[in-house]
Structure formats: C-alpha cells, structure tokens
Amino acid sequence: MDAHRRPLMDRTPALLVEGYAWLPDRMRDSTRSVLRTRLLGRPALAVRGPDAVRFFYDESHVHRHGAIPAPVLDTLFGQGAVHTLDGVAHRTRKELFLPLLEAGRVARLTEHVTEAWDEAVRSWSGRERVVLFDEAAVVLTRGVCEWAGVPPRAVDPQTLARDLVAMVDGFATPGPRHLRARRARTRQETRMAGLIEEVRSGEVAAPEDSVLERVARHRDTGQGPLDPRTAAVELLNVLRPTVAVSWFVAFAAHALHRWPAHRERLRAGDAAFATAFAHEVRRFYPFAPFLGGRTVTELTWHGESVPAGGILLLDVYGQHHDEELWGDPYTFRPERFLDRPPGPDELIPQGGGDPAAGHRCPGERVTVGLLEALAVRLARLECTVPAQDLRIPLRRVPTRPRSGFVVTGVRAP
C-alpha cells in the first residue's frame, strides 16, 4: 500500500493533551500548509492561509449541520443554534443578529459596558484584591444585559456571568469543567426560555427592537416563532460571546504588564492605536485553536484529499502565528496594524468570510469595539500588579493567565 494512503491514526487523544500546539506542530513540516489526519473517528484535512480561509467558507465545500460535536453544542452554542444551520436557513436566522450589530448599536453597547466598568473600578478601590478576568465578566454581563433589554429582576449578574464563563470554559475539555458548562447551559436556557414566554404573554415588556424583543418575535422562513428553548439559545448567543470578551480583557492586561511602553498611547486616547492594539491582542493570544466543518463532497487542497463526510479544519492559531503572513509572529507589535488593517481572511479569531452571508461571527465588531474601549481603561487603571502566576498554558483550551490577572491597591479616578 502507498505509504501516503495508509490508514491514519485518530489524533483526538493527542488534541486533548496538546491543546493549541496540536495542529501547528503537525503542520510545521508541511511546505504547502495542508495536513491529512484523523479526528473524532473521521478523516480530516487541515488547511491554513487566506486562500484556505476562502476555501473553508465555501458552502459548496463545507456544512456546519452535523459537524459540531454534541458536547460543544451542549455547552458553547446550544442545540438548534444559528451555528448549526446552512444555506437559506442560516441566512434567515442570522438576520436576527445582523441589525443588532450596526455601528450605532455597537457604540451603545460599548457605552453600557464602559459605564459598568467605571462604576466597578470605584468599588475596587476598597478591596484588597481584584481578579480582572472575573470582574470583567461581571462588568460585561451587566452592560450587555442592559443593552439587550433583559430586565434587571430577571437575572443576577454574578450568577449569569459565572454561567456564561463556564459555557465557554468547558466546551473543549472533558471532566469537571465540561460538567459545569453543561449545568450552566441547562440552568440559563431554562431561565431565558421562561423570560421569552413572559415577553410573549405580555407579562414582561421588552424594549422595542431590543435583543430580547427581536428574539421573542423572530420567525424562521415559513415557520412560526422559535420555540422558547431555541429562542433562549439565541438570546444566550448574544450574551455569551459578549461576556467571552473577558478572555481578551485578561490578555490585554497581560500585554500591558509585559510591554508597558504601549500604555502611553492608549492613555492618550489614540483611537487608531487602540484599534491596532485590540487586533494584536486577538492575533497574538490564543483563543480558538481551529474551526471545523463537515465536507459535502470529496475535497482536494494542494494535492491532499478528504472524502465527503470527512472534516475540514482551519488552523486558526497556526495562521495567526504564520511567519509568511506576519513576519515576526511571536512578537507583540500592535504597530503592524497601523500600517494597514488586517485582511478579512488573515486575522480570523471570529472566523473568516462575509459576516452577512457566511459563518463569520457577526459579533466581531462588538469584540473589537469593547476591547478598544477597555484597553484604554486598563492602561489608565492605577493599581499594583503583585507577584502571581501569569503563565498562559497552551494545553488548556480555552486558555487564559492562570491567576486571572490579579491587581491590588486600585485607586479610583
């Protein structure tokens, strides 16, 4: 048998052990940025690079329906979520989200979050120790719930923040973190489904054209309103990714601690630099290791093939640290994005392609806007960073600074 076509060993156990390095390490020896492997019992083809991003997001190549493993649906996205749909069904469901993410609405969300941040900082000044990751999650929860029209009586920000963080933290790992994520999703889907029913019955008045009101009245093509559980899933798919920005806030604090020279331009309110800094945080620090989809037909990329029903993987972490794309990928250098904005198929922490028609996360603009604003506030934060474990383990997915980034002696402005 041709050695090139011998049955491939399933690499799922290695992925669970190696984390972010699993795919880049195996692709390092490839001169064509492509790799044949086996994952979750299926043949898989891993690709990388802007051309590969366009190949990956071609709907004639890859479908999401049936591609996302059940453990990920049961924790991160939710059963029946927009992420599981394709074609017309996907575009129709996505219309629920796109108007919410126009520039004016993103600006209002940023205002709600920064007001919550400024209020929180005043309370931190009386505390001995503050874990920025945890506090950022609560701040983001308060801000996004107010913006989304979720009534204060319906949620406890501390509990909701903890559950939304758990959904993200446990999607990619077995064990206690995964069990916490499942329990958190069940708890919040039940709570939000009840809220949807209260809105529909008139018991709760949702602000006109708010996220809550839009989710409650949305109809897929040729169907009635979403069932309460699916509506709850989609409401959480606005709240959860916003609160996931807490990962990037912790990374931004880590970057400012390691490279404090960047503080001056952020403190001065240099808007262009704040945008470049946000992009570099999203590129440099690890979040999604890769993206995957189920192949519709046999696909060939740079001479390597995967059959229909296999898996096509897009190496996100490897692409963000590709020397051909970035020149000095392991140097944290926001200035690279002052020279030119990132190409849509180069920087892909929220996916690639067209957010209006494809599977790129429409919330990317929210992530960038919030990170710009909060990076400026982090640069202006008067505090002490005590000795702590700031290592970022690449075996943990999703990872973050081990300490959560602790600060002491916060001085209110």
UniProtKB/TrEMBL annotation:
<dbReference type="InterPro" id="IPR002401">
    <property type="entry name" value="Cyt_P450_E_grp-I"/>
</dbReference>
<dbReference type="Pfam" id="PF00067">
    <property type="entry name" value="p450"/>
</dbReference>
<keyword id="KW-0408">Iron</keyword>
<dbReference type="GO" id="GO:0004497">
    <property type="term" value="F:monooxygenase activity"/>
</dbReference>
<feature type="binding site" description="axial binding residue">
    <location>
        <position position="361"/>
    </location>
    <ligand>
        <name>heme</name>
    </ligand>
</feature>
<comment type="similarity">
    <text>Belongs to the cytochrome P450 family.</text>
</comment>
<keyword id="KW-0349">Heme</keyword>
<keyword id="KW-0560">Oxidoreductase</keyword>
<dbReference type="GO" id="GO:0020037">
    <property type="term" value="F:heme binding"/>
</dbReference>
<keyword id="KW-0503">Monooxygenase</keyword>
<dbReference type="GO" id="GO:0005506">
    <property type="term" value="F:iron ion binding"/>
</dbReference>
<dbReference type="GO" id="GO:0016705">
    <property type="term" value="F:oxidoreductase activity, acting on paired donors, with incorporation or reduction of molecular oxygen"/>
</dbReference>
<dbReference type="InterPro" id="IPR001128">
    <property type="entry name" value="Cyt_P450"/>
</dbReference>
<keyword id="KW-0479">Metal-binding</keyword>
<protein>
    <submittedName>
        <fullName>Cytochrome P450</fullName>
    </submittedName>
</protein>
<dbReference type="GO" id="GO:0016125">
    <property type="term" value="P:sterol metabolic process"/>
</dbReference>
<dbReference type="InterPro" id="IPR036396">
    <property type="entry name" value="Cyt_P450_sf"/>
</dbReference>
